Amino acid sequence: MESTRQKKIASLLQRDLAEIFRGMAASDFPGTLVTVSKVRVSPDLGLCRVYLSVFPTDRSQLVMDFTVDQAARLRSALAQKVRNQLRIIPALHYHLDDSMEYEANIDRLLREGGENPFK
Fold it and tell me: Which residues of 99-110 are buried (b: 16+ CB within 10 A; e: fewer)?
């Protein structure tokens, strides 16, 4: 269970990372929407898991490769934004949030299924 401090830090990091990705998506990934869907912070505030949602989904691997290659640059940009709120910038680990893809797949399966068994 997350503490109040973890939730506040996660919210701050999510907002600032979303700003960073919004600027980078425009220049590095034209026509791609990168959303920071969730941020989880460890209890010691040293590790941060960032969940990214990418649309269109066929560019997800490209975006994930970019985050691995540019991890230091992304962390530095984040440090510039939160330098007055945090003393130590957590290590960032990026994960792909595939919940939109999962939802689309379920929706497709329901449409293909034909009649509703609950009627």
Answer: eeeeeeeeeeee
Inside any domain, residue 27: yes
Q: Does the residue 119 lie in any domain? A: no
- Whether 118 maps to a domain, the answer reads no
pTM of structure: 0.83
Domain assignment present for residue 22? The answer is yes
Count: domains in the chain: 1
Angle at 7 between CA 69 and CA 3, to 5 degrees: 125
Q: What does each of the 119 residues of the chain score in pLDDT, given as a tens digit?
A: 889 999 999 999 999 999 999 888 778 888 888 899 999 999 999 999 999 998 888 888 999 999 999 999 999 999 999 999 999 999 999 999 887 778 878 888 888 876 655 55
Closest by Cα among 30, 32, 28 to 56? 32
Count of CB atoms situated within 10 Å of the CB of 26: 12
CATH number assigned to the domain comprising residue 43 = 3.30.300.20
